[in-house]
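quick one, two chains, predict together pls
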Amino acid sequence: MTAAPAETGLKGSSERGRLARARLLRGLLPAMSLVLVLLAIAWLNPRAISYFGFSLMLNLAIPIALATIAQMFVIAGNELDLSIGTFVGFVGCVTATWLKDAPLVGALILLGSICVYALLGALIYLRNLPSIVVTLGMSFAWQGLAILILPKPGGKAPDWLLSLMAFKPPFIPFPIIAALLIAAVVHFGLMRTSYGVILRGSGGNAAALSRAGWSLLKTKVVLFALAGLFGVLSGMALIGITTSADANIGNGYTLLAIAGVILGGGEFVGGRVSPIGAVIGALTLALAASPLLTFMHIPPDWQVAANGAILIIVLAARVLISRRER
Amino acid sequence: MASLRLLLAKPWIWSFIGALLVWLATIAFTGGYGGGGMITAALSLAVFTVIVGVGQMFVITLGPGNVDLSLPANIGLASAVAMKVMDGNDSMIVVGLLAALACGMAIGAANYLLIWALRIPPIIATLSASFIIQSIDISYGRGLQIKPPPGFASFTNWQILGIPVLAILTVLFSIGAAIALQRMIYGRSVLAIGQNIRAAWLAGVNVGRIRFLTYTLSGALGGLDGALLAGYFRGANVDIGNEYLLASIAVVVIGGTSVAGGKANVPGVWGAALFLVLLLTMLNTFGVSAGVRLLLTGMIIVGVITAAGGQKALR
């Protein structure tokens, strides 16, 4: 009589332990893939693992990480933003022109563009529109605006931005500090505050949230506004590094950002995202994109393919681990 | 009156109304000049969007998250394969077309293999695959400057009474696709999977096989499109398919197919493709700059979806 429940209880707890282990492993996977890429780089070129090497290799990681965080907010609400890349390009053009020549106007334009993002969130919720299509349309609009602002590549980043991005702290390279800072701030905001739970809940179970009295309109607007804010930060960081802008500068970021979120353990539905994972995913992509491939002496023709292969390998590893979870 | 109301209830009618309005606006601007030529040009360009759009439509109908992002790379590689096999030789046209089809089918099958074996979301699977295909294309098509056989080039540009023959063939193909979607077991299965994959599986639909067929179909259409594009534009090119990534998704959704899956229609793909091509023609006729053109295109897409929207949400 008493033995049976005790036995199932025991079995249940070992089952739980196994599940917890698998879940932990899964949570660690983004970090493991980053370590793997780092080990490969260290093995191929030990000199790259240095203050200078990291500053150089991770140079472009900051804007990629910021764009990935922007995409993550949208994905947290079960939507997808296909315009983040051209938006980053638009912000870049504003930064290299208006923000330098007339800082007040530039700042107003950037604030306005965040408001546009918030309005898109409201529009998508109120009219029940597919976010893929709305953001697809907006990707044309942002690119058009970018070309209108800066028809030819050029412009110049504001001096304060240049000196900020060229900041050289002692011991730890700036990109690593920036990545840690971004991850910590967003992790705290989205994972540790009560409204962060509500935001993720809007992707997890919108109906339940709405019955509990929370405004889904507000969560959608906040998520999109945050995406806009981080898109702006990404564009500014990018221009701070490249010093001048081009209307097409951010186009590759759309797909890169989606891949970063997924590499970081996020999922397209259910509000399951991880800010720390997203930043790690972006760093992995940034490192795997060129430094690793250069050190592996992969011919330029096949570098894009190697990128795709790395994505596939990491995701395959994740599947092996999540199968254990079941 | 009743039939008119029935017609207005069709999800695809709005894309045709949009196309008509854009056409009227343009000929009003030119004072009636060039209206016919504009339709001819729109038909010949819309064909390429319709072919990939139909493939994308079947994929999107499979349900949330299903989308084929490898189409541009696929089109690029297939265009190179077709031109290389044809080698400027009229007698090799059919072989070249078959080679492009086979190349596209192989890519589609590989896409599904990734989705199935690694359980990756299709967006990421087709994205990673497209990176690899792109590299193969760059490496394979390096310095490729082969012109299409003269017979093939003139076939893709052939018109009867101002109507491109390719457009007529594509209309026939679309009718076939519509029948396959609405009246054949394959199409009904695709719709069933898109509505509820578990219910479809319980009802005995071979989900794996249907999804495999759908991705292969999309790949095959991408391959065919690549060969035709290379014929029409007189040569293969790595970037020849780039604009069809967004265009293929846009025509499907503007045409009234639900992004949530399980609800599709073929006529809308035609209406939306004509709408987009005519829109571009209109903005060019108005003489606006590239920036304004992109901006207006974007605003109009958002406007159309807002006006036509209100469907049950997707993803």
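Residues 1-9 of chain A have pLDDT under 50 and may be disordered.
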